[in-house]
Structure prediction request, 484 residues.
Amino acid sequence: MTDTPAPASGAPLRLFNSLTRQLEPFAPVHPGEARVYSCGPTVYNYPHIGNMRAYVFADTLGRTLTYKGYKLTHVINITDVGHLTDDADAGEDKLEKAAAERAQSIWDIARHYTEAYWADIKALNIRQPAHWSIATDYVPQMIDFAKAIADKHCYELDSGLYFDTTSVSDYGRLARHGTDEGESRIDPVDGKRHPADFAIWRKTPPGETRQMEWDSPWGRGAPGWHLECSVMSEALLGFPFDIHTGGIDHREIHHPNEIAQNQAHSCSADSGARMWMHNNFLVERSGKMSKSSGEFLRLQLLIDKGYHPLAYRLMCLQAHYRSELEFSWEGLGAAFTRLKRLVMGVAPVRDIAAAAVEDRRLTDLLDKFDAAISDDLNTSVALTLLEDVIAMKKIDAGQKRAAIATIDAVLGIGVLDLPREDLRIRPKAAAIMEKEIEAILLRRKEARAAKDFATSDQLRDELIAAGVEVMDGDPLGWDWRLEN
Prediction:
């Protein structure tokens, strides 16, 4: 990964720790390093755009840590076993259920949706982590981890090995289970000692055969979802590490259970990570955020409708990661227009060699940017500062390009590498091809040259009816008219 050094007088980085519910200065466990673990997808279906907001957030965090000068080690896991349909201790394994419904190999399903997720990661300009940890690669370590805590912290039922949540101190403090604002929603399982207890290992029921199952001291079966992240984060980052990220829904069950396991394994009250950070929900009022809704909102649907995927990244950056963000086609359209303006604005300096930033106007703006991004990743302010730099007149082009590159390295939009033509994406439903559009535009140009304005207007109306916007005087010439 390419490091972008922070200004020497950079503001201290302060981040919101969900565990304490307050802003805290980032103090790395290992000087000069930042070790981050992000809960990744369960690969039983395509991710929807709400899922992808978590990875835009985690990527922005990682880019900020790199910008601030830390050597970043980022881990994102791939859950291909153990995640139940209701996130707690009832229901079926999501991968096993998908494989049974489709009469397919569970391994093929996991591979297909992992590759689809990675394609979305690439489309959103999210940097590759240091490690993609695949859950099924770590099952032996999961069994060893469970064996190490079983005697003091677990008990066995016919259905599996369960963690006794009363065996660790202050269980559920992340979700504030013990307060009126607590968020716990654990489903009952026959025989559990306490409602919040959760499965470490789930036995395969008698008479059933799973596609993914392993032998263990507690019978043949599969690990619990929560166990996976504890094992992989410890194996790749060591306890304690710096930051654990995930969606706010993980704050209820998954992360409190991870913390309990980490406490048990370390024989301490340590949560495993120094800071726990969560992005808020993406809300969509029509109900199409659910994967059970058929044409649910995945990134490819946005592309099929003619929107560049980086318009969605920009939409996420316009809001603070801890605030709820409402999705609408109008909002996405506005973000797409803003993206186009950014790309057009940087065009004059795209091919200019970067120069050391010395102009006071630019250094002042970069100081403001540093303060904003150091203030718990205030990307909305950072975006406006990027626009301020782009709008600057009568300033050295090399310095301007360098300032743009510094800000964009954190925001991850890639404006300096994004040709305007690449933003013109043909909607899947478009009834006209680009060659036809160019042919009609040529006829229209000839009609205008002959002062046949009636024919010119007729051809323009023909293109508008086909979903094409004609842009006279613009070098791009035309664009798709996107309506939803």
